[in-house]
Amino acid sequence: ATTEKRRLREEMSDLEDALRKVRDQLAETELENANFQTIVDAVKDIQTNQKSAEMNALRTVNLDLKDQISKLEHELDFSGGPTDTHNIKYGLEEKYKSAKTDFNNFINEAELGKKQVEDELAELRKKVSMR
């Protein structure tokens, strides 16, 4: 009977150790999942912010162009010479090119940031899958 009790205690101790190890692994996995979810949420926020920033940039460029066109129409009422019209058109084209370049630079920076986050996310996925 004593031998049987000792054997059962050892078996119970082994099962408790195994259970403790499984619980530790589960806690670690839950923490990794929480970290992974945080990163996924951050990526979604970045994408949302990028879209919002792009829309704001487009609105700003659009409003600026409308304002410049309005000013041109007003100036054309006071001048009628072809030279003035040509100079105004050239100025507008240059401003448009500048605004377009600035916008494209903004988009490129946003894409680089997005790629960096995606690379970090892929690296994290790789680390999680290794465990």
TrEMBL record:
Superkingdom of the organism of origin: Eukaryota
Gene3D superfamilies in the record: 1.10.287.1490
Recorded coiled-coil stretches: 5-75
Entry keywords, A to Z: Coiled coil
Name the UniProt record assigns to this protein: Uncharacterized protein
Species assigned in the record: Euplotes harpa
Classification lineage: Eukaryota, Sar, Alveolata, Ciliophora, Intramacronucleata
